[in-house]
Q: What sequence folds into this?
């Protein structure tokens, strides 16, 4: 099988080790694609990079998006992109606003976090109240239990009393 495959030299690029000054010398989309890929280990860093290069990323060509999507772990980026028709773009190919997509991802994540926090808070409140009910019943304090259902200040006093 030795003669069936040509012996080509392969060059590998470790993108994270390319210094920024070297990236800046590049005059193509590759500069921005590698610059972003270099920072995908940290969400904060890649968000800062996109915002710093907003002019490019607000009109990023589809071919660059394809490479970024295939080579990074930026979740949900493609579902938030809206491509413009190639006839009206500066590059002659479809373009999208990655900055808008990133903002949408962040907004979605914040909404999800708020919903999860609210659910967790409700559960903690229910657990705390149930624990108070158990302790009051165990101590034979049914009257205090009944009063705590209509008097929140009294209920708070009971929480403190029982260290809940």
A:
């Amino acid at each position: 099988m030795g003669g069936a495959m040509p012996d080509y030299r392969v060059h590998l690029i470790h993108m994270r080790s390319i210094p920024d000054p070297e990236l800046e010398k590049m005059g193509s989309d590759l500069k921005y694609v590698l610059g972003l890929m270099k920072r995908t280990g940290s969400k904060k860093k890649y968000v800062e990079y996109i915002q710093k290069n907003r002019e490019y990323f607000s009109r990023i060509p589809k071919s660059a998006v394809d490479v970024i999507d295939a080579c990074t772990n930026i979740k949900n980026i493609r579902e938030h992109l809206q491509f413009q028709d190639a006839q009206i773009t500066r590059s002659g190919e479809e373009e999208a606003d990655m900055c808008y997509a990133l903002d949408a991802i962040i907004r979605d994540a914040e909404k999800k976090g708020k919903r999860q926090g609210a659910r967790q808070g409700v559960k903690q409140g229910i657990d705390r109240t149930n624990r108070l009910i158990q302790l009051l019943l165990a101590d034979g304090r049914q009257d205090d239990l009944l009063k705590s259902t209509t008097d929140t200040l009294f209920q708070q006093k009971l929480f403190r009393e029982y260290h809940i």
